Amino acid sequence: MSGDVTTFLQPQGSRVARAGDLSYTYGTYLSAQNPADQGGYLHVWQQEACGWRLVAEVLTPTAPPKP
Question: How far is it, in rounded angstroms, from Cα 6 to Cα 32?
Fold first, then answer.
């Protein structure tokens, strides 16, 4: 399928709110697109009756090396 991009996540940590209804995970990512993209990510999760749901995603690309 055109437009599909494989992204690899390397989790580095996570925390759960004291109330147990919110959580976040963070780490680094590498995207196998052309050109390749990499950087840091933050995912925010919300506990629902059927399980955890991703409610926010922040990707922060790292600057490419200077020539």
Answer: 5
- Per the structure, the complete domain to which residue 56 belongs is given by 7-61
- Alpha carbon distance 64, 21 (integer Å): 37
Residues 12-41: pLDDT tens digits?
Answer: 999 999 999 999 999 999 988 877 789 999
Domain assignment present for 30: yes
Q: Is 45 helix (H, G, I), strand (E, B) or coil?
A: strand
The answer to the question of residue 36 being in a domain is: yes
Strand order in the sheet with 37-48: 7-16, 22-31, 37-48, 51-61
Structural domain tally of the chain?
Answer: 1
